[in-house]
Design brief:
The protein is built from 11 helices and 14 strands. It is α/β, with parallel strands linked by helices and about 375 residues long.
């Protein structure tokens, strides 16, 4: 259904310009799923209902805006922003960033201990996605050392041959092997090699979360993108989208050996209180130039996490929080809003308002009473 704020806008505009709403209604769940499952990328016909409605609303509003008194405009703006919202991240964090590493070769695998040393010096922990078969050996002691140092081990496909999602029956056979490794290694997360993916098949994978879907994929072999900088669920699997340019694309396609693009992307993600996820391959930062860029990125992230109150957890910690958040509820008690449910002691209630043309959030103080510990 269309939200009250949108409906109010349309009704107000209809009285002045006789807008016909009969063709403007749409299924918002279907529209969102078309992005999350990237169905739009595989269809020759674009479903533009959502964007059509937004354009219609905006055009109608700005058509009559000059004739509206300020008091009416303020009412419309407040209506569009009314209601208490949960900011996405725990403990009042304004955004989130995660560092991830796909290990593609034996040289990259051997560099991982040194890479952990580097990240530890910046106070950052990351995840390492390892290939279980054919590419290189992954001894148990090697995996245990990564975990013991406070980093995370995940699975990166089966053998990295680029054919995981080619054919359904073969995918299911490989998925069973991948799931066996997931249980043996006691891991929670998965990323498909080369970011090849078919979200409709993800249900065969026994993982808590996935990191195979980029938000924009114009530089990747598989085009598309989920068009969001926030985690979301694909069935029972939480998707942590890749929201920044991969190191390979930055260095070898764009030809940029600086962090300026990453800084611009980070700024845009911060504006949306989103998840800034980075994919750096140990195999690609062995040279002096690429190593220098990586050090600059770590230094930048350390500063922005401190200055902008950005959360820098492991991917599995994002998964745990988002899963808890998905089961939380807002309840109004004695005229005040409270977040209730497991993990709610870390949640915050914030009120959305306009600052110029930007939406800003102001935290409500002391909403902890009544929250359930979990």
């Amino acid at each position: 259904m269309v939200t009250n704020a949108f409906t109010d806008h349309y009704r107000f505009a209809e009285g002045y310009s006789r807008v016909d709403l009969s063709s403007a209604l749409f299924d918002p769940t279907e529209a969102v799923d078309n992005f999350r499952y990237e169905r739009y990328a595989n269809s020759s016909a674009t479903n533009g209902n959502g964007s059509h409605m937004k354009r219609l609303l905006r055009s109608a509003y700005y058509l009559i805006r000059p004739a509206l008194p300020v008091s009416v405009r303020k009412h419309l703006q407040r209506t569009a922003l009314r209601g208490w919202e949960k900011l996405p991240w725990p403990d009042g964090y304004q955004a989130c960033t995660i560092m991830t590493h796909d290990v593609e070769t034996a040289a990259g695998r051997d560099f991982v201990p040194r890479l952990m040393d580097i990240e530890e010096s910046f106070g950052i922990r990351s995840s390492f996605q390892l290939v279980p078969e054919q590419r290189y050996e992954v001894p148990k002691a090697y995996r245990e050392d990564i975990s013991a140092r406070g980093f995370e081990v995940n699975i990166h496909g089966l053998n990295h041959d680029g054919h995981l999602f080619d054919e359904r029956l073969e995918f299911e056979r490989r998925a069973r092997r991948i799931n066996e490794y997931a249980r043996e290694w006691a891991v929670l997360g998965f990323r498909s090699p080369v970011l090849y993916r078919k979200q409709e098949w993800f249900s065969a994978l026994e993982f808590s979360y996935d990191m195979s879907v980029p938000n924009v994929a114009h530089l990747d072999p598989q085009r598309g993108g989920c068009c969001t900088v926030l985690p979301y669920f694909i069935g029972d699997i939480l998707e942590l989208p890749l929201t920044t340019t991969q190191d390979y694309s930055l260095f070898n396609i764009i030809g940029d050996f600086s962090i300026e693009l990453w800084k611009r992307q980070m700024d845009l993600i911060l504006q949306k209180s989103g998840l800034a996820s980075f994919l750096i391959h140990p195999d690609y930062i062995l040279g002096a130039d690429t190593s220098r860029v990586f050090h600059s990125l770590l230094e930048y992230l350390t500063g922005i996490c401190a200055d902008r109150h950005v959360w820098c957890p492991l991917p599995k910690q994002v998964d745990a929080w988002w899963t808890q958040r998905n089961s939380m509820k807002l309840e109004c008690r004695d005229g005040k809003w409270h977040v209730v449910g497991p993990g709610s002691e870390r949640a915050r209630v914030a009120y959305a308002s306009l600052s110029g043309t930007d939406v800003v959030y102001q935290f409500e103080e002391s909403q902890r009473s009544g929250a359930t510990n979990g």
